[in-house]
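seq:
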Amino acid sequence: MAGSLHRKLTLKQLQLVSVLGRELSLSKTAELLHTSRPALSRSLNQMEAALGLVLFERTTRSMRMSSAGRSLFRYANSILGQLEQAQEELEGLRGRVRAEIRIGIIPAFSSYVLGAALERTRAQIPDLAITIQTHETDVLYRLLSENSIDIMLSHAEFTADMSTVHIHELYQEKSSIVCHPSHPLSQKTTISARDIASWPWILPPPDIALRKVLNRTIFVDRPPVNGDLADIQADSYPLLLGILKHNPTMLMLLPSRYAVVYEKLGVVKQVKTPFRLLKGPMCCFTPKDMEVSDAAQVLIDALQAVVAP
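struct:
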């Protein structure tokens, strides 16, 4: 490709690539960018001609990104995200806000670890603006790739290209089966998978790693006579605990750090199982193609200090 890329592409064209790559529809993209479909098509054709590459493969019925389109889509999102972050930071400076950090966290990551790390971070940067989003791993990885968050706090049990991220291991997490303190299993010392499968469950969603492990290790032993047990599916730990309080015959899973805290509070009792359902590292992920901000690095250091032995 001859010539400098910055001479061939404008921010408006990068925005076109970003929106069209997300929508894969000329009509919808034209509507979002407040232009006409013919004008959008002309701009796309001119951009492809200038680059000498096909970015979007079009038919009369569908559209998809080419490999070149996917590459430019990723960089366009990164560039536009950095510009948006720069604008927010500059506006924050005008309003005496020194820095901002955007955090993505899975529900299973310890809120107590994050809370302690944020306390340390705010002690160093008192006027730090902090936003936190909670999603599952695949959604967070997409947000991290699009530069919509600065840091992702998650386990590594998800499908992703790990060569695109820096991984900072923080602590080991395992899952615990818990029940209401009045549950019959709360006092038993010898419990089998069949015992556990014989009670109704408050289940995590089927695409969650814990649910998949649960299906492989516990529910294969569920007695046929109890196949119609009234299980409940939910994706929020406060919701799970509220359901358990009013349905004391049910069982559920909690990350071990949550289970220990809620057991001390008398909310749940850990079931003494002879096996572990899931164990692995909780990590902090940052994108490799972007420099970590000073505020993000302070938070990473704080997280590592909090979980240090």
